[in-house]
Amino acid sequence: MKVALINPIPMDLAKKDSRPEFSSFAEPLGLLYIAGILINKGYEVSILDHGVKGYTFSQVLDWIKKKDPDVLGISVLTRSYLSGIEIARLAKEWNPNLTVILGNYHTVCAERILKKYDFIDFCVRGEGEHTILELLPSIEKKNINYDEIKGIYYKKNGIVKSTTPRELENNLDIYPIPDRKLLEGCDYKMAIGGIEISTEKSGTIIMSRGCPFQCRFCSVNQNSWRHRSVKNIIEELELLESEGYREIMVMDDNFTLNPKWVIEICKNIVKNKIDLVFHCEGRIEGTKEMYEYMNRANFKSIFFGMESGSQRVLDYYNKKITPDQCKMALKKARKGGIDILMASFILGSPIEKISDIQKTIKFALNIDIDYAMFHLFEVFPGIKVWEELVSQKKIDENKYWETGVRVAELPFYKYNVDFLTNIIKRTYKTFYSLARPKFMLKQTSRTLKSKYRREKLGNMAKDYRSMLRMLDSLSEKRF
Fold it and tell me: Measured at the alpha carbon of residue 228, what is the angle toward residues 230 and 104, in degrees to the nearest 5?
């Protein structure tokens, strides 16, 4: 049996008749994990990263025709979901006998998807490695009874059926290390917070899955955190180094959750003389000792999700942090030797007042970070704020379930998109302005002291300029 897997481009960046302008630093690791277990079982697997290849939808269909698969699996996040639907439609028109499976986050809407689109055969909910291994043999045998396969939605006699949710796998070491050679011809560039920082061969890695926190705006609400063994991680890092990779982004939802585990990884990176540069995202709970070991292991940047400078808004998000704790985390990371500290902030939550927005802007401009990123609050199916707004009849679920929506676009919200994006524009211009002499002096001093920052200075400066040029079209973009 031949299986083709596709990572579709975000729909707002796709173009039907011309090559889309798109770049990415992140390989579709979820599809690589699926491919690995299928290849180990004897399946013939191909992967297409739609956006990175720069294909139009017609070219995607040509790729599918060339591979001539029995099963087409499409990974759909909310932003890329409609692209996935378009690909599935084209593929099914070409070959009505092709089995089409959707997986990844947006299958949270599996029942709606199957009711609306008759060319989708299955939706896989949750982590798909075990599910796909059970599903494919049944498809091959043309078994019409799928009730015993956990974690799927399908149609039977025109009725959408769902099976028991699949339990999360605790032993992540059982999965094969992703074979990135399956992504031949794809060029990934290291970018943090939208800023490209390296032109060297870059890649990503997942060392743990899930998050035990329950932030109301987040889709990672498994209330579970599982990690790979240090030995298993080091094995993958050594492979990446041997394949010529130079910069690696740790894609974990919460890499810094367990400082002892992070320290053990870093000790082994140093012990095994792994010559890679690392970047990661994290919450604020890390220890100074953890950051010191991360520095020794060549972690150069951390991206913190701080979200707001208003405690009222942080409590609404159920973030379980305070602005003072954010400041302390930055001090620990600085003292630990991390070169580049970044933070993201959200404006436009349903309860936000002008005073809350002002607190966030003031906070971002006064804390010790090198880069700031601002986003408009967006809701989509599966997160708690979406469910709340739907129940309050503030969102037309039928209108937005396929795309999500920025709260500032909804009728009940008193600040519109233009108002908020103008605030973001002004804040960016202030943050990256020469009118902040203390900030600029710190940046100059840190760059003079850091070989890594000096090497990347050209890329960073280029992206500073690009960011400022993009501000005029900011309101047209989804955040």
Answer: 150
> Is residue 208 a contact partner of residue 229, using CB atoms and an 8 Å limit?
no
Q: pLDDT-based confidence at 478, cuts 50/70/90?
A: very low
The structure tokens listed for 168 are 């999360």
H or E element: which one contains 250? strand 247-250
The 10s digit of each residue's pLDDT in 327-364 is 999 999 999 999 999 999 999 999 999 999 999 999 99
Residue pair 126/151 in contact (Cβ under 8 Å)? The answer is: yes
Residue ranges and CATH numbers for the domains of the chain are 2-162 (3.40.50.2300), 189-476 (3.80.30.20)
Helix axes 354-366, 417-431, angle to 10 degrees: 20
Give dist(CA 150, CA 167) in Å, integer: 9
Supply the DSSP string of 337-376, one letter for each residue.
T-SEEEEEEEE--TT--HHHHHHHHHHHHHSS-SEEEEEE
> For residues 345 and 375, is the Cβ–Cβ distance under 8 A?
yes
Q: How far apart are CA 247 and CA 273, in angstroms?
A: 15
C-alpha to C-alpha distance for 386 and 401, rounded to whole angstroms: 10
Q: Exposure of 14 by Cβ count < 10 A (0-12 exposed, 13-18 middle, 19+ buried)?
A: buried
3-state secondary structure labels for all residues of 407-450 = HHHCCCCCCCHHHHHHHHHHHHHHHCCCCCHHHHHHHHHHHHHC
Distance in angstroms (rounded) separating the CA atoms of residues 304 and 343: 5
Residues in the chain: 479
Other Cβ atoms closer than 10 A to 400: 19
Q: Which of 228, 287, 237, 295 is nearest to 260 (CA)?
A: 287
pTM for this prediction? 0.93
Alpha carbons 375 and 254: distance in angstroms, whole number: 20
Return the exposure string of 48-86: e unless at least 16 CB atoms fall within 10 Å of the residue's CB, then b. Answer: bbbbbbbbbbeebbebbeebebbbbbbbbbbbbbbbbbb
Beta bridge partners of 299: 278
